[in-house]
Each structure stands twice: as C-alpha cells, then as structure tokens.
Amino acid sequence: MEIKFYYFCFSVLIGILLVHRCRFSQMLHPIFEEASNVIKEEYPNENQVVFARVDCDQHSDIAQRYRISKYPTLKLFRNGMMMKREYRGQRSVKALADYIRQQKSDPIQELHDLAEITTLDRSKRNIIGYFEQKDSENYRVFERVAKILHDDCTFLSAFGAVSKPERYSGDNIVYKPPGHSAPDMVYLGYMTNFDGTFNWIQDKCVPLVREITFENGEELTEEGLPFLILFHMKEDTESLEIFQNEVARQLISEKGTINFLHADCDKFRHPLLHIQKTPADCPVIAIDSFRHMYVFGDFRDVFACAVSSVPENLSEAFCQYCYLTVICICKLCIWHLLASVALELVGSQNGCTMKLLAVTSQWELLKRRNSTCRTSGEDKKKKETESLENSSSSFLTYILENCTENSIMVLTQLIQPQDRKSKM
C-alpha cells in the first residue's frame, strides 16, 4: 500500500522509503512486497501489521519530516510512533518476516516468583510492573510502552498473589537502574495516562548521556542531532560521572536538540586524530556538528561557567578558533566554543529559516538552516531574512525580537574586532 500516514491505527507499520530511480530501491521493492504477503497470512487482521511504501520523489515532505537522506530506508512505526532504530538486517524475505515476528512477540517477561528479581542482570535497566490482573487498563498502557521501548530496557511484570507484596498502595511500576547501589524509583503518575507513563519510562530507559560505539554510530547519526562527546578511557569512570552530572545540571533543557554521548578513547582514536588529540589527552570534550569538530579547551573548565552568566574570558577562548562570533548561547557556554556551532544546537520549532550574516572576515557566522524563531508566514520570513543582509544591527535586533528567550541568549552588544585581539 502507498503510505497515507494513518499509521496511528496500526499496531506495527513498517514502511519502505524509496525513490524508483534508485537501483537499490528497485531491488528491494519485490522482496518487501513478498515479505508483506508472508506476514499478511500470519497476521490477517489489517490493523495488526501493515507494510507501506513511500516514493520520496513524489512525497519529499515525508522524507524531510523523517530526515530520510539515503534510499531505500526501512522505518518501523508502533502505535503511531516512529522507532529510532531503522531496520538494518539482511534484505531478504525471511529476514524481514522474522523481524516483524520479533516485533510482534511479547516484550514483557512475566515473573512467577518475586525471588526471580534477585537474578536479574543488573548491568541493564529494568522496568517492573506490579499488577492485580493482566486484563486491566493499567497493564495495557504498560504493554504499549514496553513495545516501544523494549530495545532500551528490560520489561518484567507480576500479577495477582505474586505481585501482592509490592502492591501495598495499588498497581505500580518500579525502575531498577544498573548496578546494585542505586535505589529503585517508583512511578507516581497515573498509570492509565499513556503519555505520562511513556515519558517517565523513556526518561529512565534512555540515559541522558549515551555511549557511542561503532555498532550504534550510524543509528545515532541518523537521529539528525549534533553530538556533544566526552572521549575518555574506559576505566576513567570519574570523568564520565562529572560529565554526566554537568550535562544534567547545565544542559538538561537542550535534550532533544543535541545528543550527549561518551566514547572510549582507545576505540575512537581516528576521530581524536581529527582534532589533533590522542588517548593520552583524554578526557576530551568535543562538538561534532557533522561538518566540523570543535574541542572544548580544558575538561576541568566544565565547572567554570554559571548558567546565568557569560564568563569574562569567553571571547578570549573564542579567539583560539577559526570562526569568531558575536553570539553566546548561555546554556552552551560550558563548551567555550563557537557561537555559530552553538546555534546549530538550537532545534527548529517551526521550520523558520534564517540566514546569518558575515559581520567581518574575522567574525564570520556560519549559515544556519534552522532557528527557534517564532516568525510565521513565508512572505514575512522572506522579508525579514532580506533585512538581515543590510546590517549586523538588524541581525541582532531580529534575534532579540524573534528568538525563543529560554533557548538562547544574545549578547546585547556586538563584539567589535578592535575590542578583542584575535589570536588567529
């Protein structure tokens, strides 16, 4: 079927996004069709599993919405939500059919004795639901969440007499974090509220700072967000803990506009070479905007910047880099990096496009496709974008008047080249 985006009606939807002029799309299409016929026989209910295709030449808006840049791409949707992990398995009828069968399997392991909890793998993130009965709205919501997040957490459940010791105040959900020392956390929201339950469990299952590996690197890249990476030695858990704490303290509001990651210095020697570093220099913090990599000066300076103010030496730190700019995003000043890079980290809220100005050859701003501007209307955007080309003061006024205040802070004065001596 051609995808029409009524996919919220379906339990599982797998979509192939292709362009017919692409040879690989042409090769996969018949395999995809045959796999859909196999699955249709096993799951005859039309709302259980749906295979759909999108011709991205005809529906470029859909390709842009889901950041599809290579073809063919196989995306999975569950209950209307697109899964971050696309299908990367073998492109055969059997492999595709097995993948769907796996997606349709029960993601929740039932406990028949609470003593089984003592044998859980505590290196993983475990979510345990305690319910009076399986046939309940509380459990149905829990099951929906588990089907979406089962790749990120281990889900378990207990019912009736088995779960009674843990249901002293009614049905509940407990998160057991990795390790044996961290305390359990109990969900205090309404268990029949899907959004509340999903958001709470997702927050526990998907850590704020994730590890990047060669296995998940492409997957993380396809999320379309720039990286803030801590390179550290595997045994250096202290630096990782500091980084995690400072990200949580200073940058929690930027979650969703940037991926916070950590990487093993030994395994990622090649990326370190791009920034003239070796494992001996670790820990190292860098931003990867997919166009450039920028290094944070000194790991110890992660404590140096208060969220509510810009450090006096910020412009001096900027002078060490090729591009010197006039804007500081306060919550990103932890990095002492280019403001133009910082702008790349501000997510688009309404697709407003803004052309940044080159103030001088020494204080050049990079072009930015997206901003948090509240401007609406194509004519208005075009007119205001043209006004940016007239003067740097127009640019500053435009930012101050139209950009989301809680996302960025603009310095109230342009830093003129003569005010700061460049070290370039």
TrEMBL record:
Q: Which residues form the Thioredoxin domain?
A: 1-105
Name the CDD domains for this protein. PDI_b'_ERp44, PDI_b_ERp44
The protein depicted here goes by the name: Endoplasmic reticulum protein 44
User: What superkingdom does the record give?
Assistant: Eukaryota
**PROSITE patterns the UniProt entry points to:** THIOREDOXIN_2 (PS51352)
The protein's matches in InterPro entries, at most eight in alphabetical order, are given as: ERP44, ERp44_PDI_b_1, ERp44_PDI_b_2, Thioredoxin-like_sf, Thioredoxin_domain
Q: Which organism is it from?
A: Sus scrofa (Pig)
Query: What are the boundaries of the signal sequence?
Result: none
